[in-house]
Structures are given as C-alpha cells and as structure tokens.
Amino acid sequence: MFGLGKKKFDEIHIDRELVEEIKDIARESYPLEFSAMLQGKVKDSILKIEGLIFLPGAASESGAVMEIFMMPMLSDAVGSVHSHPGYSAEPSGADLQFFAKRGYFHIIISQPYDDDSICGYDGFGELVNYTIV
C-alpha cells in the first residue's frame, strides 16, 4: 500500500500512449538525458499516471536538471521520469535524493528505450511493480 497525501493506492497504472511518448522522447533525446514530472491521480485505490509535466531545465549526457520551483501548484505531479543514455536504469545517488523529495513513483528508462528497459521506483529507490494499460 502506498500513500499520496490522504489517498492510498495499491496499484500503479501507466497509460500505454504515455509509455510510447516516454520511449519516443528518450530516443530523440539520446545521447542526452531527458526529465519530466509524472502527472496522475488516485481513483479506486489505483494511481493512474496519465501525463507529463515539462519544466525548464538543462540536460547533458550525465544528467538532467529541472527547475522544480517552476512547478504549477495544482499540477497533480506524483513523481518523475527521466532517461539514462546507457543500459542501466539503476538510480544514481542524485536520483535517490530527488526521489525522496518529489513524489511517490519514479520512472527511469534506459537503452534500448523499450517496455523492458523501463523501471519504476518508489520514493526510497526500491523497485515498484506497475501495469501498462
């Protein structure tokens, strides 16, 4: 059981079209990383990830930075997504620090930028199961 404020959820569902968009952006951004916030809501004990929130920032081959202070107050941000230009979706130390401060579900996508190279993590950097719907 996870928590999002007062709303609790048991499952995480990610919209298939959003997954396709994430894969496309990761491929187009390569060799740079890309980053965005995940937009979603809890309904019937399911966290439904349905969109991306792009913030100003900078990207390189070794990292991506978002200007979090530019986040709209009513954005429904529930976590983050970013790409790794290599073949590992293991969170870095900086990723873990960010996860702990910004949301409940985080995605890292690595090469070859397909469904199998997407990993979901909780705010502690532990792997989390999700379903693409």
Q: What would you say this structure looks like, in words?
A:
The protein has 133 residues and is of the alpha/beta class. It contains two helices and eleven strands; from the N terminus they run βββαβββββαβββ. A seven-stranded mixed beta sheet has the order 10-9-8-4-5-3-11, covered by helices on one side. The protein has a two-stranded antiparallel sheet with strand order 1-2. A two-stranded antiparallel sheet has the order 6-7. Helix 2 links the parallel strand 8 and strand 9 (105-109). The mean pLDDT is 87.
List keywords for this structure.
alpha/beta; 11 strands; 133 residues; two-stranded antiparallel sheet; seven-stranded mixed sheet
Write the layout of secondary structure elements.
Elements: E1 2-4, E2 7-9, E3 11-14, H1 16-29, E4 35-43, E5 46-53, E6 57-59, E7 64-66, E8 77-83, H2 93-101, E9 105-109, E10 118-121, E11 131-132
Parallel strand pairs: 3-5, 3-11, 8-9
Antiparallel strand pairs: 1-2, 4-5, 4-8, 6-7, 9-10
Number of contiguous helices: 2
Give the tally of β-strands.
Answer: 11
Overall SS class = alpha/beta
N- to C-terminal separation? 20 Å
Radius of gyration: 14 Å
For the biggest sheet, the summary is: 7 strands, mixed
Share of helix among residues? Answer: 10-25%
Topology as a string of helices (H) and strands (E):
EEEHEEEEEHEEE
| Residue fraction in strands | 35-45%
**Morphology call:** globular
Trace the largest sheet across and list its strands: 10-9-8-4-5-3-11
The stretches of 5 or more residues where confidence is low (pLDDT under 50) are none
Mean pLDDT: 87
